[in-house]
Amino acid sequence: MPESPALKILFDDPDIVAVEKPAGLATIPGRDESFSVLHDLAAQLGIPATGTADPRLRVVHRLDKDTSGVLLFAKNTGAQRFLSEQFQNNTIQKEYLAIVAGRPGANEGSIDAALAPHPAHPKRMTVFKHGRRALTEWKLEQKFRDYALLRVFPKTGKTHQIRVHLSHISLPLVVDPLYNSPMNPDAALPPGLFLSSFKKDYRPNKDQIERPLIARLTLHAEKLTFKHPNGNELTIECPPPKDFRATLAQLAKTSR
Fold first, then answer.
1. How far apart (Å, rounded) are the C-alpha atoms in residues 69 and 8?
2. Active site residues
3. pTM reported for the whole predicted model
4. Which of 35, 84, 238, 249 has fewest C-beta within 10 Å?
5. What is the pLDDT of residue 5?
């Protein structure tokens, strides 16, 4: 079985460790997954993880499998409790970058809409007035011809919160198979954002299937600000990965 690439460590001390989570790798292992950030990082650091008899790498929050960005773990029980309380109390400041379909009519806004599991689709969440309260704030970073880059601040931590909220205001993530329709209806093409879908003079090679610029959620967890177990405030940042940057560059070129 091939090994997954080494994770980039953003911060590491005796209490906590933060890594750059790549898109496509789950935070914790699922039934059909051989790799996860938790177990790969534990192996990389040479310490036991959650689920073992003596765990020294503990989960305090999660990112969706196809989201990239800052992912934080605790390295002892005290740090896990301290950080988990901050996530539960919504005192940790989280900043995301989101490439969305559509152009907002304002430079900033907030979405206060309760969420609940979708009654017909178990893997989805939906806006429901009797659900659990969820609040998301956003600011416009950059406008393109038919798309936009938003900086998003989730003030609560519900499942799929950013994805559902942005879809609710008609600014869904450009690539999101659950909350946005496929960008390219051609069934022969994989899901993703294609250069041919927004660059009118682009003609892909007829002998090859066009590859998407980005083929995963257009969502990146860029920054976490929280109180370290030592009492000091700490900010951990993670620049967007190559596929995210390349997509923004192509969108900017076609918007000139």
1. 11
2. 64
3. 0.92
4. 249
5. 78
